[in-house]
Amino acid sequence: MGEYVKNKKEMNFSSMDSLKPVQKVINEASAALNDKNRTIATSAIPEVLAGAVGAGAGGAIGFAALYLGGPIVGLNAAGIAGGLAAAGALVGGGMAAGIAVLAAPAVLLAAGGVGLASRAKNRKLKEAKELYYKEAIKKQNAIIKALQNESRRDKERIDYLTSLNNLFKAAIRDLKYDLGI
């Protein structure tokens, strides 16, 4: 077994939205299995089948340091100037350097928040891919069984089930790649 693809540019399904077509095929397969008269023409996806937080906390820290950091506490001009100068002195600078010092917590926490949110989002995407992969295999097996059982039915129904099977082949292949299977 390979490794889960982590680079979004290399993924076949790089977002939850990109998985929507797989979900539509799974839903269509469920409908197909429940309605033996369903064909491409009566399908919900005929054209497809036919073609087979950290910034807030960081800002608060910077604001508190500005408010309380200078020799004159408060948000009047002297208090702000004193707070910026005191913060700037931490890195050997003046008021201008103080702006960077006070902005740093907001930037660092925002970056950390984005990183945490990204990791959580990627974990959910991987879990969704695993779920869709298992469901696609299950539905594909049911479609293959229906094809075998309905081999004497009309050509439209057989074409419909064959189209679904082909879509599942492609979805399963792409999900296997992303999941490193």
Structure description:
The protein has 181 residues and is mainly α. It has 6 helices and no strands. It has 2 domains: 8-52 and 122-179, no CATH class; 54-110, no CATH class. Helix content is 71%, strand content 0%. α1 packs parallel to α5 (95-149). The longest helix has 55 residues, at 95-149.
Outline the fold blueprint:
Elements: H1 20-34, H2 46-50, H3 54-69, H4 77-89, H5 95-149, H6 155-179
Helix pairs in contact: 1-5, 1-6, 3-4, 3-5, 4-5, 5-6
What is the compact description of this entry?
By secondary structure, the protein is mainly alpha-helical. It is 71% helix and 0% strand.
Which keywords apply here?
elongated; 6 helices; mainly alpha
- Main sheet makeup: none
Give the overall pLDDT as a whole number.
74
Helical content (DSSP H or I, runs of 4+): over 70%
Q: What count of domains describes the coordinates?
A: 2
- The number of helical runs is 6
Computed over alpha carbons, the radius of gyration is 28 Å
Structural class: mainly alpha
Beta strand %:
under 5%
Termini separation comes to 5 Å
Order of helices and strands: HHHHHH
Give me the count of strands.
Answer: 0
Low-confidence parts, pLDDT < 50 over ≥5 residues? Answer: 53-76
